[in-house]
Amino acid sequence: MNTLLFIEDDDGIRLALRLALEDEGYTVHEAVDGTAGLAAFGEHDVDLVLLDLRLPDMSGFDVCRSIRATSIVPIIIITAQTDTHDMVAGLEAGADDYVTKPVVPKELAARIRALLRRVHLHEATTASSSSRFGDLELRREQGIVLKGGDELSLTKTEYRLLCEFADHAGAVLSRDQLLERVWGYEYLGDSRLVDAHVRRLRLKIEDHPDDPKLIVTARGIGYRLMT
After folding, report:
1. In this structure, are 163 and 210 located in the same domain?
2. Side-chain half-sphere of 90: how many Cα atoms within 13 Å?
3. 78, 109, 178, 224 from 82: Cα distances, Å
4. How many domains does the chain have?
5. Are residues 184 and 115 in the same domain?
6. Which tens digit of pLDDT belongs to each residue from 122-159?
7. Which positions of the chain have pLDDT values less than 70?
């Protein structure tokens, strides 16, 4: 049974979604603001975090960054349907996915299942080989990435994204292909999810993220890992 942490100040939303997620078999811990959320995260062994970005005491972006500074646990942010800026900023703060209000419980449950399935698949998969791309080394048997010999701090989603590029090095992967293979669903997400994570990955693996040499853009199609 997986354990979720739901950080949301709206009592009605929190209650409705908690009941729906408990019906799906999850254990759900609740927090009404960012301070309580960070405290609960430290107290419980959490498999995934649901995080509202508009909290009464502190920014949800700061909560996301605080969690991400110490953990690679999957994070799904909840944002207003029309606020694209919040969605992009939340992903760049370290979230893995997002849902928009009003939240549809079945859609949220599908996103949670997809993220947790990918996490469990990654943890159960081993490989005996490593891959090199310039000064970047992907050691799958250890689940780590080195740049110039130094280990990088990648989230599980960033690691899976890099593995997908490495498995198809030199080939152009469309945003839809990456969405399906890395996040595990075809129709629930959109291309902005992929673009935001590629930007975060570039910040960590590229010498000059604004002029990338490893993961390059295939204009109008997707991205390619250069060999």
Report:
1. yes
2. 28
3. 12, 21, 24, 31
4. 2
5. no
6. 555 545 467 899 999 999 888 899 999 999 999 888 99
7. 81, 120-129, 185-189
